[in-house]
């Protein structure tokens, strides 16, 4: 079932059909490296893909500009999930999953959140430690207490912002 995402590390975006529950679930990796777009069609079917063009290839997906997605794009050079530039097409946010059953699409739910056990760091002080469960990936490798790595909160945030979308890491 959808609890499998807790066991996964790395970059992924996938759909999995649960035959026993007759439910499809879609999931995106914790940092959002791999995108996942989806659209509920008028007949209750679900179109999805790792690229917007894959979803747009379905003839039932309307090709209408989404004003909210366009506004998000103009504001930050990126349409922030769940928004896209196409009305009716959504993008799963990093660390989220969504289920579809019998033509009904549930609201996306978050299976992971980034949390730092950081307090204020005085100038010249030690960087905050990253909780192992909260930051399994950082630039392609695992980090956290188990490996004794320390990451300053601003370095991790900049790395994540860079990975989340173009324009997100501008200063």
Defining key terms:
three-stranded antiparallel beta sheet, disordered C terminus, 171 residues, five-stranded antiparallel beta sheet, single chain, 3 helices, 16% helix, alpha+beta
Task: Provide a quick synopsis of the model.
The protein has 171 residues and is α+β, with helices and mostly antiparallel strands. The protein has helices at residues 52-56, 67-76, 153-164, and strands at residues 13-18, 23-28, 37-40, 46-49, 89-91, 96-101, 104-105, 109-110.
Describe the protein in words.
The protein is an alpha+beta fold and 171 residues long. It is built from three helices and eight strands; from the N terminus they run ββββααββββα. The strands form two sheets. Strands 1, 2, 6, 7 and 8 form a five-stranded antiparallel beta sheet that branches. A hairpin with a 5-residue loop joins strand 3 (37-40) and strand 4 (46-49). The longest helix has 12 residues, at 153-164.
End-to-end C-alpha gap: 41 Å
Number of strands: 8
Mean pLDDT: 78
Rg value:
18 Å
- Taken as a percent bin, the fraction of beta residues is 15-25%
Structural class, from secondary structure content?
Answer: alpha+beta
Proportion of residues in helical segments? 10-25%
Oligomer category? single chain
Number of helices: 3
Largest sheet: 5 strands, antiparallel
Q: What is the global morphology? A: flat
Indicate the low-confidence ranges by residue numbers. 130-171
Order of helices and strands: EEEEHHEEEEH
